[in-house]
């Protein structure tokens, strides 16, 4: 009898569970939002929008700090400032970008369009060397990409870049994951962080070998564009809030023959000045039009002086009569 009652109860329980409405969506949504919030916090702390929350600062309201960080991120990247982790913001966070922080201790909350934190080389000749190549592109092509990327900066400054076999100012290498310069600088596989560089007087520049690298054509990430951005850091520039600038933090594909944005030029020249040939350039000679005007003015002055002298001579003659 007891066994019979037990079996009946079991079947009733199963029936109740089957009949009960299943509502996983709300819980899954909350779970997804929690994961997104956690990932967003890690992103904002890594790239300088929110201070690291440690055991000493656990009492801080993370939701408030996150909202402030989101607004700061949206403002810096020219987005609608909502303070919410909306779809546009999440998609922006997911985009490939540089691994250098957008803000650091020396940055202002409202940076200039270009950002020069104050680091620079004290000499105009800077050496570079590739110590770790990728297998995705021929070595000679990689060197061409780096040489072309450096030329973007030497064209608008007095700087001279020399490839060396000795110990370089800028050491260039490809790596994966944690590659020896701190866990916070570890690469994260395909997507998100593409590369990073150190400010002077270090200058070392690293590229994530898990990315698909190309040079100017093909499907993948253009090494020349990313290298030029990272070399901007290696020369002393931070990230710009001008989204059209090369020094904006997120990667964008460039057309063949692209040039630095004026924002980039203004930034780098604030550190190193203009090319020397622009300093020694002769003053432009007067145009033919201005020369003609000057000659006509001189002729008119001479004519007036001559007329005055003649008029005075005639007047004196009449008085004598």
Automatic annotation (TrEMBL):
Belongs to the peptidase M10A family. Ca(2+) 1 binds at residues 209, 211. It comes from Mytilus galloprovincialis (Mediterranean mussel). One of its GO terms (biological process) is collagen catabolic process. Gene3D superfamilies: Collagenase (Catalytic Domain). GO terms for cellular component: extracellular matrix; extracellular space. This is Matrix metalloproteinase-3 (Stromelysin 1, progelatinase). Zn(2+) 2 binds at residues 98, 229, 233, 239, 247. Residues 117-274 form the Peptidase metallopeptidase domain. Residues 1-19 form the signal peptide. It comes from the Eukaryota. The active site is at 230. SMART domains: ZnMc. InterPro entries: M10A_MMP, MetalloPept_cat_dom_sf, Pept_M10_metallopeptidase, Pept_M10A, Peptidase_Metallo, Peptidoglycan-bd-like, PGBD-like_sf. The keyword Cytoplasm does not apply. Ca(2+) 3 binds at residues 188-189, 208, 211. Zn(2+) 1 binds at residues 179, 181, 196, 206.
